[in-house]
Amino acid sequence: MEKRTEIGEVGEFGLINHIAAKFTQKQEWTDLGIGDDTAVLDPKGNKVVTTTELFIEGVHFDLGYTPLQHLGFKVVSVVLSDIAAMNAIPAQITIGLGLSNRFSVESVDALYEGIRLACEEYKVDLVGGDTTSSPQGLIISMTATGVVEADKLVQRGTAKPNDVLCVTGDLGAALMGLHSLEREKQVFLSNPDMKPELEGKSYVVLRQLKPMARFDMIHEFRELGVVPTSMIDCSDGLASEIIHLCNASGLGARIFEKNIPIDDETYLAATEFNVSPLTAALNGGEDYELVFTVSQEDFPKIEKIADVTAIGYMTNIGNERVMVMKSDAIVDLTAPGFGKQ
Ligand code: ADP
Ligand code: MG
């Protein structure tokens, strides 16, 4: 039996101290972290960006196939992905936790081990939070802050006609990872002796369980001296993110099916699950890639980045949101089955 320490045994303050002891400060502009009534931040003249994401057990995650450590890492990645989408550098997080009595000190430790690994990965400081009991299940609220020089801040609605529309990485993988894990859960529920059948699914499963916020790209943009003209992170699927960029800018967009990046493993998994790989890429959520536009002038610099694909361009036809198929047919991204609006 694994050791189980009730949270009541150490108390809320004991738990917080126990958590805080495992974290070291990384950011110069964190003046004060955990321990007082609030954290104190000093952005030194930069713009501060801040955002929150709420995660509820049974709605946003399933502990049936999500190890707590992965969940901790993932919730940090998810909230930081929005910081990346503003072209900002992440710096601090705070966490609100609702814990039912199902959770022991050891399980909270596992969650925080993932959070700590993410803090190391992204060089952010955990500067506070709140801990409370929940009648049922686990609730996690993650808030993040980041900084950005005023002239590098990138919003959703600032593209210009003919700007090149690009995406990082590849799309649809996280959804195929989810399908693989869901299938294994069903198999396991019907026969607990069955071995998991995740062979050939390691990439898609990792994309579901351990997504990465693309700060490698944010640093790359700075190194290349490029500021995207608009940007959003891909949490709900490519089609819906493009529609957001269009709605915010009042512009149209035209993308090309042949350019949409889909990994081979995603392609094979989609075929196996009877899903069209294209639909997985356009509608599958949780990839946390960046969807952004750059001026024609800056595009040659961006083109050098291996992990960036140009998929189309912005148009001055306000209501156009279309995809040119390999067959040359033109389909509407707002059509049912494509972009959720
Ligand atoms: P208060 O009574 O002022 O709300 P708390 O006892 O809730 O204070 O928190 C004490 C300190 O511990 C604060 O700095 C708070 O931000 C931090 N904290 C509380 N819960 C957590 C948590 N789950 N993770 C990280 N820090 C936390
Ligand atoms: Mg509190």
TrEMBL record:
The chain positions of domain PurM-like N-terminal read: 35-148
Binding residue positions for Mg(2+) 2: D82
Pathway given for this chain reads: Cofactor biosynthesis; thiamine diphosphate biosynthesis; thiamine diphosphate from thiamine phosphate: step 1/1
Q: Quote the record's binding site residues for Mg(2+) 4.
A: D37, T51, D82
Question: Which positions are annotated as binding Mg(2+) 5?
Answer: D236
Q: Which reaction does it catalyse?
A: thiamine phosphate + ATP = thiamine diphosphate + ADP
The UniProt annotation places Mg(2+) 1 binding at T52, D130
Q: What else is known?
A: Reaction mechanism of ThiL seems to utilize a direct, inline transfer of the gamma-phosphate of ATP to TMP rather than a phosphorylated enzyme intermediate.
What is this protein called in UniProt? Answer: Thiamine-monophosphate kinase
Annotated source species: Aquirufa originis
